[in-house]
Specification:
Blueprint: E1 2-7, E2 20-23, E3 27-29, H1 40-44, E4 48-50, H2 56-59, H3 61-69, E5 77-81, H4 83-92, E6 113-117, E7 123-126, E8 129-135, E9 143-149, E10 152-156, H5 167-170, E11 175-181, H6 189-194, H7 200-207, E12 215-219, H8 226-234, E13 240-243, E14 249-251
Parallel strand pairs: 3-4, 4-5, 5-6, 10-11, 11-12, 12-13
Antiparallel strand pairs: 1-2, 1-14, 2-3, 7-8, 8-9, 9-10
Pfam families: Lactamase_B_2
Protein name: 3',5'-cyclic-nucleotide phosphodiesterase
Domain Metallo-beta-lactamase: 17-197
Length: 252
């Protein structure tokens, strides 16, 4: 399985794209501004979009991608997310005021987007991939995703604060790669707590429950916090921790 990092930033700035991962060439995990680096042909090959939650930096690419590929595909793209996330996407974005509703375009009979609700604990089979919906703790209903690979599970937490429900599940699986957010530095630990994100000290507490052999990759750092977060992560005495960068590709 190939994981292409399209975006892994917690906000936009020069060179910073918000969260999106392309799995092989047919599954998109979150749809932030990083989707814009795909060609039209690459966008048109996407069959499924797995969304962690409804915040703009994770969904902005969905309506824009739909507009870009209309007329380039016959079958709908399926958007998988919690019912609350799907409802927010339709009510607040694809509502004919902010953007057209591509669950009804180009026609109700043959729409470009199909919405598929998921629940925590559900296992999906998409394009030959086994995918599990994982718990997350955020300010809106949210999930993470795990994808089974020949080397073990690729796990992406999505946006989350301390997440006690996740670690017993991961203890039961061989994890090949953990992608976990650390949005703020410890000097902004109170902001991280209020917004249900992680800072390095909170990350260290979370990782106590993870096998130290599992490589850990950091996503969702705020652009203005990158240097401080990276410095604080380097001081942690646990696991192999590296920051993701847009454009990276991992083979699992």
């Amino acid at each position: 399985m190939k994981v292409r990092v399209l975006g892994c930033s917690g906000a936009i700035a020069a060179g910073c794209r918000t969260t999106a991962f392309l799995i092989d060439d047919d599954v998109l995990v979150d749809a932030g501004t990083g989707v814009g680096d795909l060609s039209l042909e690459e966008m048109a090959r996407i069959e499924h979009i797995l969304v962690t939650h409804s915040h703009l930096d994770h969904i902005v690419g969905i309506p824009l991608l739909a507009d870009a590929v209309m007329g380039r595909r016959r079958a709908p793209i399926t958007v998988h997310a919690l019912p609350e996330t799907l409802a927010a996407l339709q009510r607040h974005v694809m509502n004919w005021v902010i953007w057209p509703d591509f669950t009804q375009l180009p026609s109700k009979a043959e729409p470009l987007l199909r919405l598929a609700p998921v629940r925590v604990g559900q296992q999906l089979e998409l394009g030959g991939k086994r995918i599990e919906v994982l718990p997350a703790e955020h300010t809106v209903p949210a999930v993470g995703y795990g994808i089974e690979t020949p080397q073990g599970w690729w796990v992406y937490t999505g946006d989350t604060g301390p997440n006690p429900g996740l670690w017993p599940l991961l203890a039961q699986r061989p994890v090949a790669m953990l992608v976990i957010e650390t949005a703020f530095s410890d000097r902004e630990a109170e902001v991280a707590l209020l917004s249900q994100h992680l800072a390095p000290s909170a990350l260290a507490e979370e990782l106590r429950a993870l096998d130290p052999r599992v490589p850990v990759y950091i996503t969702h750092m705020k652009p203005g916090e990158q240097a401080q977060v990276t410095s604080e992560l380097a001081a942690l005495d646990s696991h192999r921790i590296a920051a993701l960068e847009a454009g990276q590709v991992y083979e699992l």
